Amino acid sequence: MSVEQDFRLAMRNVAAPVSVVTTLVGGEPLGTTVSAFDSLSMVPPMMTVALQDTSFLLSRLTVGAPLGINVLTADQEELAIRFAKRAEDRFVGVDWTLVDGAPRLPEVHSWIALRVNELVRGGDHVVVVGDVVGAARGLGRPLTYHDRVFGSHRPSS
Description:
15% helix, 12 strands
């Protein structure tokens, strides 16, 4: 096997939370499913999100743009699948509200609002570095992705 194949298999073995990243461009909501996001700094609060370089949402992002991180709950698998598919309007039939300039989906596990600070190319992805402008904790267990299957975290007893 190649290093790329070994790396892909190793990363499949890492459980990751699932989110829908959203923005608003010209009054139009855009969103895509991602599992590659993380906190970067607590002081000041910053995050990173990795978007595939062919992402339509990425093609519309600029420095200073709003970005929402909708961390999904275990029962929002349908939203993860919907926003992962290549479709023209993923928001059809989906309720959302505008919070800190970005579309927030209902009843998410966590919400983090960002302003794009920097776009950094890395291989076949672009890392979006964002300044946190708002955050809220929701309810429920998080939706996770592990070995190409959705699931959820269960605390040990």
